Amino acid sequence: MQLYQREAIEAAVGIDEAALAAVEAGFAALGRGEVVQPPILSMAIEEANGEVDVKTAHIHGAERFAIKVSPGFFDNPRLGLPSLNGLMMVFSARTGRVEAVLFDEGYLTRVRTALAGAIAAKHLSRRDSRRVAVLGAGEQAEQQVQALRLVRDIDTLDVWARRRDGAEAYAERMRTTGLAVNVHDGVNRACQEADIIVTATPSRTPLLHARDLPAGVHVTAMGSDSPEKRELDASVLTRADAFVCDTRAQSEGNGELKAFEGGEVPFKVHELGRVIAEGQRLRLTDETLTVCDLTGTGVQDTAIANFALSRLLSG
Predict the structure, then answer these.
(1) 198 forms bridges with which residues in the sheet?
(2) Is 238 exposed, middle or buried (0-12, 13-18, 19+ CB in 10 A)?
(3) Phi-psi region for residue 92, left (φ > 0), alpha (ψ -120 to 50) or beta?
(4) Cellular component GO terms, alphabetically (predicted)?
(5) Spatial separation of the C-alpha atoms in residues 145 and 180, rounded to whole Å
(6) Phi and psi for 58 in degrees, rounded to 5?
(7) Which pLDDT tens digit goes with each residue over 86-143?
């Protein structure tokens, strides 16, 4: 059994084309029905504004599978600590023996989450998209934009965050990457000229409404991953010409489809894996409005863990 610390993992794996291809292949396998993926095991630590999720999946024919333990404690930044932590255990899919433990401290989760956002934009946004609006100013807000630049020629970034000082600090960091960055006091102003909107917050109340959406925009919502969180108002979902999620079951329990809890969802729900595997074209014109809800899946974790371990073993 091999033990790897974050420093070695971070040196081997980054937000790049190869990692994107590995995660995209995992989504496609899910879409083809080639994945065993049990429901998420989730536990709230309410007194510390925290939660712990356990995710896993097996891709048919893959040499290994991973089990990830992912704590998220959202008051940690006040303590000078990252919100996410955790590790991945990688097992042989033939014998069940532990082959490696990746003490990544949540790093691989951040990478595969950012790559999932880029994959959604690759298949759903306009190919000429250049301007992205980000709601949120944390680490994932940075990495979502970094990953988007693998699939779209992003040159302008608009940002809104609850804390103006946080948004300004984020803007300064992002300007060093060569982007033109604008900070806004309101969500509507931030989104007015966007080609792509990314919501990257732990919000428990909707932040984005249909009135904020310009024609032809693509929205990726990746902050809602537990029953208590919501980023999108129901009007965003009903206005969309195409609504996509990583899995419908997770979106209904943890994601944005909670808006219709107890009632019928009044539109067709697509899953990202099938969109990829079947080559579905959901964007029919430049005016098509698309929304993708990403709650985070076990297949993403197995895909990135397999990719990481392959890189580590070959390095």
Answers:
(1) 134, 220
(2) middle
(3) beta
(4) cytoplasm
(5) 12
(6) -120, 125
(7) 999 999 999 999 999 999 999 999 999 999 999 999 999 999 999 999 999 998 999 9
CA-nearest of 59, 49, 76, 72 to 22 is 59
Beta bridge mates, 4: 102
| 182 close to 134: Cβ distance less than 8 angstroms | no
Rounded CA gap, 183 and 171, in Å?
7
Tokens representing residue 163 in the block: 């804390």
Which regions of the chain are under pLDDT 70?
A: none
Neighbours of 102 (CB within 10 A): 27
Render the burial of 184-216: b for 16+ CB within 10 Å, e for the rest: beebeebbeebbbbbbbbbbeebbbbeebbeeb
The β-bridge partners of 110 are: none
Q: Which residue type does 144 have? A: Q
Predicted confidence (pLDDT) per residue in 282-301, tens digit? 999 999 999 999 999 999 99
DSSP 232: B
User: What does 125-164 look like in DSSP terms, one character per residue?
Assistant: S-TT--EEEEE--SHHHHHHHHHHTTTS---EEEEE-SSH
What gap in Å lies between CA 53 and CA 41, rounded to an integer?
A: 6
pTM exceeding the 0.85 threshold for the entire prediction: yes
SS (H, E, C) 43-62: EEEHHHCEEEEEEEEEECCC
Q: Domains in the chain and their CATH numbers? A: 2-108+299-314 (3.30.1780.10), 121-296 (3.40.50.720)
Q: In this structure, are residues 296 and 37 in contact, taking their beta carbons and an 8 Å threshold?
A: no
Residue 224 is predicted with a pLDDT of 85
Give strand pairing partners of 56.
Answer: 67
Tokens at 208, concatenated: 């984005």
